[in-house]
Fold this sequence. Notes:
By secondary structure, this protein is α+β, with helices and mostly antiparallel strands.
Amino acid sequence: MIESNTLVLLIIYLGLALVTSALLISLLKRSKQRARWSIWIELALIALWTIWVGRDLLNFDRTLLLNGREFGMSIQSHFVWQWLGRCQLCVLWDGSINGGAPAFTELHGAVLHPVVVITSILFGAINGAKITLLVTLFMAGFAQWWLARVMGLGQLPRLWIAAMAVVAGNLSGRMESGLLAESLSTAACALTLAPGLQLALTGQRRATVLLAITLALAITAGQGYLQVGLVLGLLPAYLVFFFDKYRPVWPIWKEFLLAGVLSLLLAGLFLVPLAHFWPNFIKGTGTGFSSAQALEYAPLNLVIRDFSFYMNESLGKWATPHMYINFIGWVPILLAVIAFRLVPRRQLRTLLFLLVAIGLVFLSSSAVTLRMLEQLRFDFIRSVRYASVIGGLAVPLVLALAGWGLHLLVQCTWPRLSLRSLGLTRQKATRSVSMSYVVLALPLLWSLVAAYDFSRPWLKLNQTHPHVYQTLQLVAQPTTQWIELIYGEQFWTPAALDADMKLAKSIRPWDWRERDLPQPFIQATRNPQEVVTTSVNYLGQVGELLLVKHPHNEYAYVDTGQQQVPCAATALGGNIDVECTTEVAGKLLVTENSWTGWQAYRDGTPVTLDNERWLSVAAPAGSHRYEFRYRPWDVWVGLLLTLVGVALCLVWWIRSPRAKPPAQADVAPPSETNSSEIPASQA
Length: 683
């Protein structure tokens, strides 16, 4: 149910925002200046709406975390950016969990997305995630607004569908489980729609550059499932523009290919290290895509807002809400249907694009497309175990149709309501307002409030239990050691990694092929049978948690053949410093995964790394200081490709003439839309 106080507040908020926008725009006299300032005012309104929706996210108390049990895993890779100011290049190696791995090869987290990089550096990983989610909401609204402008929609439809995108369930619903990367990826993929459609309609080189940039942002947005949806659902739909007997299509083919190549260059910093490390990835696979909801049921998630429905297995789904929530309500659906009737003939190809894209997205989310690829021996597709999240990409497409329907509906001939007859003005000249605004205001506002109320529970913060910090204080060690907390309980991860701890046997969506996990020096367990409370290695109990030390599992030690001599180690990412004192020679082992790019030094002199599973070098007798530094070649090659991509973008952007608004080239004349008013692209 929609709370009455929420409805009143939103009416006041939106009313003031729209009135302020109208007044500011009316004060601008020149048409060009008015159009330019109108853009910034509209974007400001979307930003204000986003801040209102996500206002709880602006609490920077680090003990308050985003909602969802998988939030810790979702941001685990973001913590490397907290080290940038302390050790610079050490961020190239993520040594925080399970023996470490190259930081820039992370598939689940969005470690190289600019939003994540900037927010994590400025605010830390925990608070940066809050700002990242807020930016994600704005990104979705901006993507919808941008697409509306490309389609030539009027101001009211633009702002309404942008506001709907901010509160749509395809973003907030993913946070039911704390999957920040899924929300970010959904918004990033939606951001590709506007420049893609603009390129298809105009063939302009600047649109090519914008599409390449947004594709690169989508590639680096993490998670992987939404990128599969982008490739199988959104991109193939542009083929409807490639077969047109009335205009040459090869230039458009060429520009799309160019955008694809340019996007790969821009994402080189991520793709080159990933390609280098790819043979080492192992990810769980599923058979039969059992979590995918049947095609005939998947669209219903756009209109179902009964949360108890998502907590059961009815209509062929799992009882895991975050995979299926895409609520936007019936009003956008009805307006989208209206668009079918009113869309002018000259824009049928754009309508076909949106419909084909929606169909392909649902075919992918219901695993119809994935099963076909599996039969064609594309075995990697089995790793897309939770395909239903791809269905969230249908939301911006449906909202685009809804905005189109609203735009065309407003342009129809409506009776006009005289303000003078209502006593709202004393001027002699009669002023009137179209009845369309009066009739449509309530359903439009109701749809916003309904989506807002449905999304709010997952845009709040949760307090970390005090036992978490008490436990971390007990397990903290003076030197670097591997710590094992309870497997699967991800609420430990943010606080532990924020304290620079290294977590052994921690949950992660992928594993390193043929690599065992490091054994913990400190272990937390809830099983009393694993602990001897009378042992000197028993550290105590916090709540139900029992803490025990395993002194034989040192992070760094010298193996002399007769004994293991512990060493004092300090590790932060790709910088590991070890001090050892032994009476006899042996081999120094550091339980960090060995991989190409590691370099070793003894007392400042380079030494050869052994070809071992762990970092290992010869250790002569006496006191020595060892340094291990991760400096891989693949990062620098990837960075070079990214810089080349940036340079090409700048050159082509500067050399290309400024494109006229694509809607002017594709919008129908007033007679085709049953309107006597000015087309939206000229408003």
